Amino acid sequence: QVQLVESGGGLVQGGGSLRLSCVASGRTVSSLTMAWFRQAPEKEREFVAGVGWISSNTRYADSVKGRFTISKDNAKNAVYLQMNSLKPEDTAVYYCAVGAYTVPDVRYWGQGTRVTIYS
């Protein structure tokens, strides 16, 4: 079992930045991928960014490319999402996830952290 705890959400004006953090505990995640998803009100949960725990290869949704950066700290079992040039359409609950880049295949979810962008 893996426990994921996110932090760093908040209320930010459009054009601003936020940094989300996710710390994993429990079973090792060294053989897995870690990712960020988000779910806006009345919308389906969607992939935002992911990173391979060993390979460090990254992947991004087209909607966030060039604005968001995912990174990790293996020693701290942590993954981060630096979000710049935020837009109102980035408003959502952001979830840390382990195991896959597609919703049905994710093995573990965090509880989510809310991000609200106002114009």
Notes on the protein architecture:
- By secondary structure, the protein is mainly β.
- It is built from no helices and 11 strands.
- A hairpin with a 5-residue loop joins β5 and β6.
- The protein is globular, with a radius of gyration of 13 Å.
List the helices and strands and how they pair.
Layout: E1 2-7, E2 10-13, E3 18-26, E4 33-39, E5 46-52, E6 58-60, E7 68-73, E8 78-83, E9 92-98, E10 108-109, E11 113-118
Parallel strand pairs: 2-11
Antiparallel strand pairs: 1-3, 3-8, 4-5, 4-9, 5-6, 7-8, 9-10, 9-11
Salient structural properties:
119 residues; mainly beta; 7-stranded mixed beta sheet; 4-stranded antiparallel beta sheet; 11 strands; 0% helix
Mean pLDDT, to the nearest integer, reads 94
Task: Give me the strand/helix succession.
Answer: EEEEEEEEEEE
Rounded to the nearest angstrom, the radius of gyration is 13 Å
Number of helices: 0
Please describe the biggest sheet, giving its number of strands, its sense, and whether it closes into a barrel. 7 strands, mixed
Shape from CA axes?
globular
Distance between the ends: 40 Å
Strand content: over 45%
Q: Give helix % range.
A: under 10%
| Count of individual beta strands | 11
Helix/strand/pairing class, anyone? mainly beta
Low-pLDDT runs: none
Condensed summary:
This protein is mainly beta.
